[in-house]
Amino acid sequence: MRRPIEAPRLAVSVICSSLIALAAAPGACLAAGQAQLPAANAARLALDRQVQGRAIMMKMAQLLAGAPHFRVNLHMAYDAVQQSGQKVEFHESRTVLVSRPDRLRIDGTRSDGEQALTVFTGKDVVLVDHASMVYATAPQPGTLDDTIVYFVRDLGMRLPLAFMLLGRLPAELQERVRSVEYVELSSIDGAASHHIAARGDTVDMQLWVADGAQALPQRVVLTYKTAPGQPQFRSEFSAWDLAPEISAAMFEKPTPDGLQKVAFAAQLPRVAPAAAASAAKQGAR
Amino acid sequence: MRLAPWSLRMTLVAGVCLAGLAHEASAQLRGGGGGGAGFSRIGAASAGGFSSGGTFAQGRQRGAGGAQASQGQRQASVNQSARQTAISANQARRQQSVNQNQSSRQSAALQAQDRRATTATNIHNNRADALSDARDNYHGGCYNCGRSNWDSDAAGAFVAGAVVGSAVVTAATPSTSTVVVAAPAVSAPPCNVASIAVNGVAHYYCGATWYATAYANSGVVYVPTAPPPGY
């Protein structure tokens, strides 16, 4: 017959044996513990940085998308990779005035001094190129979001950072950003800004967002990682105004005196060389 | 001093060539695609979009199935949308007509009920129409932008001087997908002739081809086009 004291004795024995075993191999136990703890901490920190980065990016997106009007100055630079592989940087300044639901005005000046004006009047899309002394117009298809996509994709016109002007910017980022990570709190022109690194399928984006309630973008860098030479587009944002003075005149259809009217190239019916030649012969008869 | 006739002819030919080169150089400088000293301003990063077609700067060749094919797909999508809207509108009109005929055949006591039914039918049809339009034109609340690369440099780019070897749907094609191979646009008038204004747009007749002045993302280009009406 076993005595009742047997079980506690057995337990004490097991514990003592374990302690002896631990004492005999302390290095193995500690090494395993040390390896697991930092790994877990690192994973948790990485997750925190991802959550923090995405939250700041989305806060910025919701602020911009929800603003009925805003004005901002953009100082842009981008790499143009030449056929030789050489990268050449060009600059451009733009003042962007947005008035939702359907108005936009962009005054731009290139680094060579050439100026252009783009206006979405609510009824028409108008582009005036003062340097080439021409202007082009097309009917506006709808809201600002519709027209921005139409202008960039269907008319094939340049509108850098067009996605940031969309009312559906939050959805656009959710759809196209594959991962986000918080980099650090840094300073842009003396203002505390959150540096965020996001990755898309073909473009990586770095974003600096102002700290505080007004989470407005201060700087953006886009890296075209699948393009030859991996060129970058960089832009700094300044003079943000979420309540600019708006007048109807700002979005009136410009009357470019002395400028030649041209069509948007994407709208012209194009012909094959052979078809062009035969059509021309028929026309000449 | 008298110049020999052959010398005079050579001088004239050289003069014409130099004038042509100067005109070309001037056009290159004025064109939006040309940067300083012949460097191109256009490339993947110049678009500033959040997607990329992964292309070199202006002057590149574009393979078949590239941006122009995408343009064709967009055109087809627009055409499909237009057809779908027309079908829905016709259905709505037929339904309304049927309801009205039925209403006229019934007694006065039932007319009020018919009117309510017609109104309900119209509302239903209008909703169906609107839904059809929305499905055709909006993907996630955005005009035809279900694709996530609508702002790619290759999405709608029209590149002057590029060798376009892909299929193109003509912009004037109303509903059928007539496919032609487009002649390349050029960045300067290919010959020195006076322009002819057609609907306010300058056209040039060079050799056997008509060119229309147009605006692309690289600046002013001259696009081979069909002869204007009457020419």
Give the topology.
The complex is a heterodimer of chains A (285) and B (231).
Chain A (H helix, E strand, L loop, with lengths): L5 H19 L1 H41 L2 E13 L5 E13 L3 E8 L4 E6 L3 E6 L4 E6 L4 H11 L14 H8 L2 E10 L2 E9 L3 E8 L6 E8 L7 E10 L18 E2 L1 E2 L8 H12 L1
Parallel strand pairs in A: 6-12
Antiparallel strand pairs in A: 1-2, 1-11, 2-3, 3-4, 4-5, 5-6, 7-8, 8-9, 9-10, 10-11
Helix pairs in contact in A: 2-4
Chain B lengths: L4 H26 L30 E2 L4 H39 L2 H30 L25 E2 L2 E3 L9 E3 L14 E3 L2 E6 L2 E8 L2 E7 L6
Parallel strand pairs in B: 1-2
Antiparallel strand pairs in B: 3-4, 5-6, 6-7, 7-8
Helix pairs in contact in B: 2-3
Describe it.
The complex is a heterodimer of chains A (285) and B (231). Chain A is of the alpha+beta class. Chain A has a single domain (48-268), classed as outer membrane lipoprotein receptor (LolB), chain A (Clam). Chain A is 32% helix and 35% strand. Chain A is built from 5 helices and 13 strands. Chain A has helices at 6-24, 26-66, 144-154, 169-176, 273-284, and strands at residues 69-81, 87-99, 103-110, 115-120, 124-129, 134-139, 179-188, 191-199, 203-210, 217-224, 232-241, 260-261, 263-264. In chain A, strands 7-8-9-10-11-1-2-3-4-5-6-12 form a 12-stranded mixed beta sheet. The longest helix of chain A has 41 residues, at 26-66. The N and C termini of chain A lie far apart (125 Å). The model of chain A is unreliable at 1-8 and 279-285 (pLDDT under 50). By secondary structure, chain B is α+β, with helices and mostly antiparallel strands. Among the domains of chain B are: 79-137; 185-231, no CATH class. Helix content of chain B is 41%, strand content 15%. Chain B has helices at 5-30, 67-105, 108-137, and strands at residues 61-62, 163-164, 167-169, 179-181, 196-198, 201-206, 209-216, 219-225. In chain B, the strands form 3 sheets. Chain B has a 4-stranded antiparallel beta sheet, with no helix packed on it. In chain B, strands 1-2 form a two-stranded parallel sheet. The chains are: A alpha+beta (285), B alpha+beta (231). The interface between A and B is large, with 82 and 76 residues. Strand 13 of chain A pairs parallel with strand 7 of chain B.
